[in-house]
Write a sequence for this structure.
């Protein structure tokens, strides 16, 4: 006789496509956050093997951003032409009649799109996606705990990134508390552009902070990110003075922040923070531009060049001169 | 690498393999002489072996330190006409095929036409085997439901333990004599059979000593002619070494390696055994010689390294025996799967890593040869730096060493009846198969095409390619009301086809035991001498037969798709699915995309699919495990494909997982190519849901881009990834670090490469999800890294 193997689980399929929510997940009753990805085997976001949970929504508008899908704190429609089989199902099911097929491929009218998500559900090829999924704390944790054995073995854990996780502060705090209860190491990858009070509360329950310093000059910072840097630098000081371990990360964007003066200023500031021992420098890449063409909403992203390996090595040398442990690429 | 090694390596890599007819001619000469017809079968085989060892060309190459070749020179590849005889058309295919060709000279072709083929046609083991197979067996075999390992090569899968480092062939002769002296002709009805087998072993032991002595003579003669004093001294040393081993136990590092090499040549000249005969735990075997040499000042680390490098070249000089028939056109590798193990545990259960382990790893990295293949055996007792050293080699991207879970292998072997000590001395060989080194005959008997069985099930027992009925009528699939009914039909088909395979296996095994004993190999494997029984006839202490299941990912995803869409969600009706499969999804691309993109898949840590995988595993396990073989041992399962997933895929139409007709199946226990979307941890979690402890080996392949493995930290993380999989009781993992060419392929065929992870910058992502510019940039970077 047949004995089919069946794992005991909660009745719902454990299969969850974050980007597409196609398997009819029942709406949860408790509070939901919004996320655009959960990435396993994240090995550049803190110690050990980690899972990175990407929150959707960001207060900054960095013109080099490689995750522009993280900007808006709500679901948005995305389309990958390469996967499209031109079956026309999206047009047929669109509730706002936003989709047309002018020359063989679907085009979405942003004004009419009501983000119902039907096109993503019906698209057989996964060309249509709704980026951004509402999930409860329990749902996020269900994904996070799957890799506990890898965290335990490697000294890893979970990293909350974004977007800006502090934009969904209550949700972040709830997740951090759950992780602490489960014994999972946590890192928060943040812009530090948030209220000081919230930063302090998060610091009480998070184990590690990964914080960007994008530019030391506030007006230049504002020109490229949309916000000045004083709040960010103040929060960094708050974290360091509270004794929280902080890894500083600098995206190296040629023409914006790669000049030696800014690098030295950044290093001197970081030196004044007692808990900063390590700086990661991350080379700019054009990934964001490519992602932005898939998104229905438009973006004002710069078309820069990636820094050369030699330049990255030179910057690393400078920073090491200030006594930091420096990693290129995180 | 010094100049000598560089030259030997270059010669090995650059010489194109070619067919040598020397062995075939000597074998024919012997059997034509009439000497073969006066003695018992084992003694005849021993005399044939002796004839080869006495007359085959002795080759000592310029600059060589370790000597002896299977052919008359490096890359000269002998044939085995008594087992399977190449036809002229086989030779032409070998000569002209695009990949892994073997040059066939007009002289060899002529010898085949005039001497070899006329004598052996109708007398080979291969023909004998096919004569004995039933029509059912032939029909299912031809339909591609399974393969048969022994139709072209002898059953030989085994690995050596430490005995040759303690005993010379003269010592084995004494053991053989003791066994002969204790035969009880009055009460043991097998006494005569044992006597003949033991006499045969004695002849073979003498033959190998003679073979080595011929090398000593040649080296002495060459030394006399040699004007360069350094080479002269080396040749004299070679002569001394070859006069001492294999007659006596080795006294030093050099003799230990040379002894093994003579044994290797003996085993692979006697027959063409499947496969992978190798020295086993080379690091542990060599360590005492290494330590003593260093302590006494008779050996330096550099000399040891050079000798090992010369030893490595020897393996690479021996391409796998070329196939005949259909497989002559298809077989895609020169490698013969000699897999040298490092690390693991010692017999007493303590950490087996020593200085020679690291020396061996250095040699693997420097030599970068496809043969011998190499592996590390990882125990929780081994230090991290051992694994990390190996990951540095893995990062360089030639697929070696593969990584095994030593602690689990001990469990597997103990479950299959080995003593704890024998299990600890065992390990993996070939691709991933486990055995007790020096004490076990563990025979791979053939691959089993699981997805093809589902195709039969979906056609009520008929092969849709030919319209021929191959399996029982298990019901019209359109009438199944539940997934359980379909699955039960699948289970019945698996058992039916497996019965056919088993019947064939039992006959083939007996044919080898009766007509083609291996007395030389029998000297080397406990307890053939003590029992007076041949390796092919149950003389080994342990006797295992494996049947290797293929296409686990494909069959899982196919069944999962049916369960999900047809039965659970009722979003697809069976007739529509069957029609789409029949039409190879022509005109229904949206359905194919739904099956590919909107269906739970194995490899994503999703219980919905992984539970189906576990169910398939249980069916396969039940169909095979525990059945008796004819040597007093039992059948067990492996899950590995070598390259047969390509052939098996070519005989199957479209499958319910969205795979089109004729495309390759998934390999080993890896997910279907491109089906895993959540990265390596999810793949490992899925694969570990299978009970590896009840197998004799599983194979998991993982692809990485070199940039994902950039820097020290990422190697630490890879080390811990491996440790984690082994904590979950995974058996084996190997890493393919991709090259730029693979990435270009992925650009062209994204759907088959959905699983390819690359480092973008500060983060890793699926290659096919990146835009073209970024893809091109990564291709360029990958090319740079390779330099």
């Amino acid at each position: 006789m047949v004995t089919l193997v069946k794992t005991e689980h909660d009745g719902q399929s454990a299969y969850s496509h974050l980007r597409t929510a196609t398997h009819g997940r029942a709406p949860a009753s408790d509070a939901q956050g919004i996320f655009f990805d959960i990435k396993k085997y994240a090995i550049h976001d803190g110690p050990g093997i980690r899972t990175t949970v990407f929150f959707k929504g960001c207060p900054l508008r960095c013109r080099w951003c490689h995750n522009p899908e993280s900007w808006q704190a709500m679901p948005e429609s995305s389309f990958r032409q390469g996967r499209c089989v031109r079956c026309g199902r999206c047009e047929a099911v669109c509730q706002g009649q936003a989709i047309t097929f002018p020359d063989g491929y679907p085009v979405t009218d942003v004004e009419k799109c009501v983000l119902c998500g039907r096109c993503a559900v019906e698209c057989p090829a996964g060309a249509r996606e709704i980026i951004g999924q509402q999930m409860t704390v329990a749902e996020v944790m269900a994904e996070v705990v799957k890799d506990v054995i890898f965290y335990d073995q490697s000294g890893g854990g979970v990293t909350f990134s974004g977007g800006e996780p502090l934009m969904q502060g209550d949700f972040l705090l709830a997740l951090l508390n759950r992780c602490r209860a489960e014994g999972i190491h946590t890192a928060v990858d943040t812009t530090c552009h948030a209220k000081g009070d919230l930063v302090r509360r998060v610091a009480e329950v998070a184990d590690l902070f990964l914080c960007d310093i994008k530019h030391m000059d506030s007006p230049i910072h504002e020109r490229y990110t949309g916000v000045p840097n004083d709040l960010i630098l103040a929060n960094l000081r708050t974290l360091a003075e509270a004794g929280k371990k902080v890894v500083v990360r600098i995206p190296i964007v040629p023409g914006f922040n790669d000049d030696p003066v800014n690098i030295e200023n950044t290093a001197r500031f970081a030196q004044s923070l007692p808990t900063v021992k390590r700086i990661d420098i991350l080379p700019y890449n054009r990934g964001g531009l490519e992602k932005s063409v898939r998104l229905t909403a438009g973006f004002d992203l710069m078309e820069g060049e990636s820094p050369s390996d030699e330049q990255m090595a030179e910057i690393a040398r400078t920073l090491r001169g200030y006594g930091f442990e420096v990693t290129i690429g995180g | 690498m010094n100049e000598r090694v560089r030259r030997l390596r270059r010669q090995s890599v650059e010489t194109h393999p070619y067919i040598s007819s020397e062995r075939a001619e000597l074998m024919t000469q012997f059997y034509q002489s009439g000497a073969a017809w006066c003695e018992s079968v084992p003694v005849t085989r021993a005399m044939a072996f002796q004839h080869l060892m006495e007359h085959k060309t002795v080759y000592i190459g310029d600059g060589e330190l370790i000597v002896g070749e299977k052919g008359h020179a490096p890359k000269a590849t002998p044939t085995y006409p008594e087992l399977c005889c190449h036809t002229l058309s086989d030779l032409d295919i070998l000569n002209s095929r695009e990949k892994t060709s073997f040059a066939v000279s007009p002289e060899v072709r002529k010898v085949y036409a005039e001497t070899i083929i006329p004598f052996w046609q109708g007398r080979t083991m291969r023909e004998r085997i096919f004569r004995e197979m039933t029509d059912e067996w032939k029909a299912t075999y031809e339909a591609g439901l399974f393969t048969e390992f022994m139709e072209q090569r002898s059953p030989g899968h085994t690995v050596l333990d430490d005995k040759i480092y303690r005993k010379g062939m003269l010592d084995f002769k004494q053991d053989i004599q003791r066994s002969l002296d204790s035969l009880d002709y009055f009460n043991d009805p097998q006494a005569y059979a044992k006597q003949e087998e033991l006499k045969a072993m004695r002849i073979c032991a003498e033959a190998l000593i003679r073979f080595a002595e011929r090398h000593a003579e040649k080296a002495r003669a060459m030394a006399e002619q040699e004007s360069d004093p350094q080479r002269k001294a080396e040749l004299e040393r070679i002569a001394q070494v070859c006069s001492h081993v294999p007659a006596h136990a080795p006294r030093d590092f050099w003799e230990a390696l040379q002894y093994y090499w003579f044994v290797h040549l003996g085993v692979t000249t006697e027959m063409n055994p499947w496969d992978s005969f190798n020295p086993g735990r080379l690091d542990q075997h060599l360590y005492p010689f290494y330590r003593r040499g260093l302590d006494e000042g008779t050996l330096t680390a550099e000399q040891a390294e050079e000798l090992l490098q010369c030893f490595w070249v020897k393996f690479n000089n021996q391409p796998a025996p070329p196939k005949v028939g259909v497989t002559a056109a298809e077989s895609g590798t020169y490698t013969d799967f000699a897999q040298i193990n490092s690390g693991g545990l010692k017999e007493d259960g303590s950490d087996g890593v020593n200085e020679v382990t690291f020396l061996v790893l250095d040699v693997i990295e420097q030599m970068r040869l496809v043969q011998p293949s190499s592996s590390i055996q990882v125990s929780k007792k081994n230090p991290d730096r051992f694994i990390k050293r190996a990951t540095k080699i893995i990062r360089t991207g030639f697929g070696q060493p593969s990584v095994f879970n030593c602690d689990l292998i001990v469990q597997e072997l103990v479950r299959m009846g080995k003593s704890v000590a024998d299990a600890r001395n065992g390990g993996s060989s070939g691709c991933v198969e486990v055995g007790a080194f020096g004490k076990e005959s563990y025979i791979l008997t053939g691959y089993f095409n699981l997805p093809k069985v589902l195709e039969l099930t979906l056609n009520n027992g008929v092969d849709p390619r030919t319209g021929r009925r191959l399996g029982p009528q298990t019901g019209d699939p359109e009438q199944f009301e539940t997934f359980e009914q379909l699955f039960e039909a699948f289970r019945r088909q698996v058992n039916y086809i497996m019965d056919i395979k088993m019947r064939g296996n039992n006959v083939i095994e007996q044919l080898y035991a009766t007509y083609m004993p291996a007395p030389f190999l029998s000297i080397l494997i406990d307890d053939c001498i003590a029992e007076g029984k041949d390796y092919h006839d149950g003389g080994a202490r342990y006797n295992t037969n494996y049947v290797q299941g293929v296409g686990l990912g494909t069959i899982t995803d196919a069944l999962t798709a049916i369960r999900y869409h047809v039965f659970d969600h009722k979003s697809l009706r069976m007739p529509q699915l069957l029609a789409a499969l029949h039409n190879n999804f022509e005109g229904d691309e949206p359905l194919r995309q739904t099956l590919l993109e909107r269906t739970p898949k194995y490899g994503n840590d999703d219980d919905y699919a992984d539970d189906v995988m576990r169910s398939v595993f249980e069916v396969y396990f039940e169909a095979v495990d525990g059945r008796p073989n004819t040597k007093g041992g039992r059948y067990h399962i492996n899950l590995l494909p070598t390259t047969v997933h390509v052939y098996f895929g070519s005989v199957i139409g479209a499958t319910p997982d969205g795979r089109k007709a004729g495309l390759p199946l998934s390999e080993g226990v890896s997910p279907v190519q491109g089906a895993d979307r959540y990265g390596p941890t999810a793949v490992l979690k899925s694969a570990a849901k299978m009970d590896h402890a009840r197998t004799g080996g599983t194979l998991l392949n993982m692809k990485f881009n070199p940039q994902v493995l950039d820097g020290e930290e990422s190697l630490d993380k890879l080390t811990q990834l491996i440790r984690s999989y082994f904590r979950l009781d995974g058996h084996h993992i190997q890493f393919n670090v991709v090259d730029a060419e693979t990435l270009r392929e992925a650009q062209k065929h994204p759907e088959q490469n959905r699983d390819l992870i690359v480092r973008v910058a500060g983060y890793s992502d699926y290659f096919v999800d990146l835009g073209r510019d970024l893809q091109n940039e990564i291709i360029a970077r990958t090319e740079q890294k390779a330099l």
